[in-house]
Design goal:
alpha+beta, Rossmann fold, OB fold (Dihydrolipoamide Acetyltransferase, E2P), 6-stranded mixed beta sheet, 5-stranded antiparallel beta sheet, 25% helix, 33% strand, elongated, binds adenosine-5'-triphosphate, AAA+_ATPase
Length: 341
Amino acid sequence: MHIVAKQLMKTFGTFQATKQVSFEIEKGRLIGLLGPSGGGKTTILRMLAGLEQPDSGEIWFHGKKVNDLPPQERGIGFVFQNYALFRHMSVYDNIAFGLTVQKRGKQEIKARVTELIELTGLKGLEKRLPHQLSGGQRQRVAFARAIAPEPQLLLLDEPFAAIDAKVRKELRTWLKDMINRVGITTIFVTHDQEEAVEVADQIMIIHQGTLEQQGAPIDIYQRPQTPFVAGFIGESNSLEHITRFKGFEQAELREAKAIIRPEFVEVGYASEISFPSASEPGTVKNVYFRGTNWQIEVELAGQTIFAYRSLEQEALKPGDRVQVLIHRVYLFNEQEHRTVE
Ligand code: ATP
């Protein structure tokens, strides 16, 4: 389903849960709504579902304004973290529920439920009750139940939050694969950046009721448009007075904040060939082993900066005099953002 949201605003009492949020989602996309707790993600989902009315703004599905359509007429399926299955109904009956409500024929219901049981890997568990299933199996039943009536949009609110880490990782891959197969436009809420980056083909970063950025995970990571996004996604250093550093003398942006990812910082001994003149002297403060590389904390012109160093290179030690080479900086001020390399 093609979705357009125009300037959605929602206030609870005096608190603005969303402030003029606008976005467009193409049909078939798998979107991750990502951001810290309380930012407004669930409120956006509930407005799309029709469970919450925006104070102002418009929602369009397939070129049709749906603000006045009740939830059951919006063609939506849901899976919520605590949206429990019907406790006294079998797996089969849970999945069949929406189809029964729609008064579909008995044969049709049987065919569709059987197909979904296959698709979601629940064969053999049809007669079980929810309490006889694992958390992961329950979420798969919830997913099958949500897509059974062939919704045009699937909304998932923290669908894996209550599941332990290992199963959660499996379910993510499973979900991505499943959604690709069934081809439903899907929006899921998460506050876990790893989950969003791994599952979604597009991410929307929501912070304090505002949509900070929308794009493919790689674009969000490589081209953050706000300081919040730069700090929230991936690791980052914050540096003042970037123009004092060699190669960045021209990086003028009035009262700018500079954010640098550790992977864009090289650190090593002056004798190492990769250090041309455009590097700054610094002192190693700490060295941390990260499994795949070293994280080096360096003191540089009175500031602290983190860099990575490969395990194949000579190990650095606290107190070592080193050279630091910065490859890419994100600059932000109130009006603008710029990437300097
Ligand atoms: P979380 O990850 O914790 O679910 P979220 O980003 O989904 O957070 P929302 O649930 O949309 O955030 O909530 C945004 C803000 O609106 C929160 O401060 C919340 O307390 C407030 N809020 C949400 N629903 C209501 C309500 N019905 N009445 C009053 N305040 C509400």
